[in-house]
Amino acid sequence: EGRKIWENILSVSRNFSRITRLYAKEVGMDRKVRMMNLVAAYPYLLRHHIRHGCLCEEAGECIPEEHRLLLEDPLKTLETRFEGDKIDGLTRSNASPSLPRDKCYVDKRKLPWNLFDYFSTQRLARTQNRPLWACDRIGREIMAIPYGPNFSSRERLVMLTAVDKLTNAIGECERIHQTAVPLNYARHSLRSLTLFLFTLPFALVKDMGFLTAPVTAGIAWLMFGVYQIGYSIEDPFQGSLRLSNLCDAIRKDVVGSIAEDMEDSYSSNQLGLWDEGVDEVTLAERAEDFLKTPMIIPTLLDQGISNLTSSASVDASKPPS
Question: Do residues 231 and 181 touch, judged by C-beta distance below 8 A?
């Protein structure tokens, strides 16, 4: 089920990217880049939301201070997913806010934090549900697109429907991640398995002799391994699924679409396709000369999509002067 959810996220992101490209003129270049940044960052934010992890637990150990971003996360949930675990008489979800927090620092130079400007990064750090924040921002950008002959409520509704699907995916992932293994079931299974393995040597010693010990050890390793695997697959987001590959695939597809648009725009500008009154002969001559000249275009996949907005946004690693 987790794989289906992320495949749906991949498909929705690609469809949204294609729709945005088709209506690029109505959307506008700056708004288009902002929307694509949000779509590219969404899977990383969702992965962080359901698979919490930091580069550093303490400040100053592995991230330079100027590139350090403190995420104001709530208290971490326990790694165990047994329902009913207690902390000083309180469940973790009902624990007092005065309990010490685990500091979480990330590097603003890395994905997805380098896709945002300074102010957006600070707001994102204070947000508890970051993928939902990204969906809300995408929705606001869609509502800010002006109406036109080629962009009406119908096209706007199609784009908002894609955002709704991304929002629903957050809840679906949370449902799997937050579904705990019943405590009574887990305890009973472990006790039954332990009792079986404890009495197994008495049944084998008559026939196996000195081989009873290694045979029992092998069976114990096998049975406890099956038990642990069954416990692990209850939450596929903790290692069963390669979420990093899926996140990178979405980002490359989104960034690659903008790179193609930039190349098309560059080519059209060089050929004079935007000039009015250009006849076919002149256009053919320009095309022939253009093909003989090497085209130098920055590789957006290497430099990052944030370079497109360098003239319209503030650097994400430092506040504006």
Answer: yes
State how many domains the chain has.
Answer: 2
Burial class (CB in 10 A: 0-12, 13-18, 19+), 318: exposed
| Cα separation, 267 vs 290, whole angstroms | 8
- Are 106 and 304 within 8 A, CB to CB? no
Cis peptide before 112 (omega within 30 of 0): yes
* Sheet strands (E) in 2-101: 68-71
In this structure, are 288 and 245 located in the same domain?
Answer: yes
What does the alpha-carbon distance between residue 159 and residue 140 come to, in Å, rounded to a whole number?
Answer: 11
- 37 shares a domain with 119: yes
**CA contacts within 13 A on the Cβ side of 266:** 13
**Per residue in 216-265, pLDDT tens?**
999 999 988 888 877 777 766 666 677 888 888 888 888 776 656 655 55
Alpha-carbon gap, residue 34 to 141, rounded angstroms = 8
Between 84 and 192, name the one with better pLDDT. 192
**Among 6-20, 105-119, 186-200, 252-266, where is mean pLDDT lowest?**
252-266
Q: What is the rounded distance in angstroms from the CA atom of residue 306 to the CA atom of residue 115?
A: 5
Q: 131 and 222 share a domain?
A: no
Which among 242, 228, 196 has a CA at the least distance from the CA of 81?
228
Q: Token pair of 315, please?
A: 């650097």
- The domain in which residue 203 lies consists of 183-233
- In terms of Cβ atoms closer than 10 Å to its own Cβ (0-12, 13-18, 19+), residue 151 is middle
Query: Greater confidence, 83 or 249?
Result: 249
> Is residue 67 located within the same domain as residue 130?
yes
Distance CA(11)–CA(14), nearest Å, equals: 5
Question: What is the DSSP track for 36-103?
Answer: HHHHHHHHHHHHHHHS---SBSSTTSSS-GGGEEEE---PPPPS--BTT--BTTB-GGG--TTSPPPP
Q: Report the distance separating Cα 100 and Cα 84, nearest Å.
A: 21
Question: 294 and 188, same structural domain?
Answer: no
